[in-house]
Amino acid sequence: MNCLSTMGGEYVCNLSPELIQRAKDELNEDPERRAADIQHIRDWLKKQPHIKARTDDWTILRFLRGCKFSLEKTKQKIDMFYTCKSMCPEWYTNRDPQDKRLRAILEMGCVLPLPGYDKQGRRIILTRTPKIDVDADILNDAMKVFFMLLDIWRDEDEQASVTSFVTMEDCVNFNIHWAALLNLNLLKKMQTVFEEGYPMRPKGLNYINTPAAFDTVFNIFKSFMKEKMKKRIHIHGSDLESLYKEVPKECLPVEYGGTNGTIEEIKDYWIKRVDARRDWLLEDEKYGVDESKRPGKPKTTVDLFGIEGSFRKLNID
User: Fold this and answer.
1) Is the pLDDT of residue 160 over 50?
2) Which of 3, 123, 210, 263 is positioned for an S-S bond with 165, CB 3.0–4.6 A?
3) Could you give the angle at which helices 136-156 and 100-108 cross, rounded to 10 degrees?
4) Between 212-223 and 184-191, two packed helices, what is the crossing angle to 10 degrees?
């Protein structure tokens, strides 16, 4: 994995010549114009009284790449990302990896970006439904850990900002208790944050070990997806040979018939990374939006998620 130091400062490209060309061809990135585009977005952010955002080169560049260097789409995406953060304090505040509840979920290895890349240069993100007695608080903690790992991985993996990623979701422990908690409102919120808030989308969504309880919930979740995303869905059931057509064996842990390390090894690596980035995670809470300062009409959870829900403004002064 090509890690970056993201504590601020000028961006230094770590991409191979092949990936630089791919960024040009697929993302409209012009190395000669890159710095000017980053500065354009930084200048725009200075004029947005309601947004408090990270303004280092690397953070802005990730949004530009995720929006194929459309400046207007990048502005909309940044606004959406920080709005989602502020409207979901249950997922984006108190993200301390030393917290006992969060630590317990981290130790389960529920979210694991796997080492290396597939033949298309994409990272594989493995998620596993934990085998625990679940309630609403635990579900929110699990979502919090998911976004903690997602944010750190995105921040440290430059290649993925060009090539994106593929998900593999093991639903073997998904049961009626999980299904009961994943109501319409929550599913819509999850879809909006993941698909609309983040500046990169999965190139493939793979599901294995899907029990009967999974089908109803997933059909609701799928109904919120854009058509392009629906076409990237692959449900393999218990057929690992079917999975291997989308996610090669050499990318998978040994527990799934692969040769890419063990779940325990990969989990330990990410726990160390999360611990190393603890200060960054805690500091990240101060970034978000203040709807009382938004030009025009403030946004609400109804505007964002199309549902009624609790709204709590983050204090970012």
Assistant:
1) yes
2) 123
3) 70
4) 60
List, in order, residues 6 or more apart from 100 with CB less than 8 Å away: none
Distance CA 248, CA 119 (A): 9
Exposed, middle or buried by CB within 10 Å (0-12, 13-18, 19+), for 171?
buried
Measured between alpha carbons, how far apart are the two ends of the chain, in Å? 36
Confidence class of residue 307 from pLDDT cuts 50, 70 and 90? low
Strand 165-170 versus strand 123-128 pairing type: parallel
- H or E, element range at 288: strand 288-289
Contact 69, 27 (CB under 8 A): yes
Cα angle vertex 138, ends 134, 142, to 5°?
110
Angle value at C-alpha 97, between 92 and 98, nearest 5 degrees = 130
Compute the distance between CA of residue 70 and CA of residue 80 in angstroms, rounded to an integer. 15
Of 94, 67, 2, which is closest to residue 286 (Cα–Cα)? 94
Record the tokens describing residue 137, joined without a space: 């608080």
Identity of the amino acid at 194: F
Compute CA distances 81 → 29, 150, 181, 276, whole Å. 21, 13, 25, 24
Plot region of 31 (φ>0 → left; ψ -120 to 50 → alpha; else → beta) = alpha
Long-range contacts of 292-298 (CB under 8 A, 24+ apart): 292/50, 293/49, 293/50, 294/49, 294/50, 295/49, 295/50
Q: Give residue 213's pLDDT band: very low, low, confident or very high (50, 70, 90).
A: confident
Q: Which pair of structure tokens corresponds to residue 186? A: 């929550």
Q: Give the global pTM.
A: 0.90
